[in-house]
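Priority: medium. Attachment 1 of 2:
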């Protein structure tokens, strides 16, 4: 069997285990909640953390680990959780002409 030159994302082997991805996702969510809490409770400290820590780190995150960012976004996280818990029909394709 010939090797696939350009595999799609389902054919690329995972570099991290599923447990590691879930731990990273939980850490990112926890960090976002901490920053949000700081912004509400102690705005001066929250703004310092946001503008001196989070914002400068985003380009590095986009370049080094795009999967973490993609899985962190609200829309994608909802789809992943729904698919993982099997209680939504996000795995089914949309019906033809469903959008209008």
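Attachment 2 of 2:
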């Amino acid at each position: 069997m010939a090797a696939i030159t350009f595999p799609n994302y389902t054919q690329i082997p995972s570099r991290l285990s599923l447990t590691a991805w879930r731990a990273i996702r939980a850490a990112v969510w926890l960090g976002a909640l901490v920053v949000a809490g700081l912004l509400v409770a102690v705005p001066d400290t929250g703004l310092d953390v946001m503008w001196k820590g989070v914002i400068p780190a985003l380009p590095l995150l986009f370049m080094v680990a795009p999967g973490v960012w993609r899985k962190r976004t609200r829309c994608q996280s909802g789809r992943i959780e729904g698919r993982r818990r099997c209680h939504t029909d996000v795995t089914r394709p949309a019906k033809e002409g469903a959008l209008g």
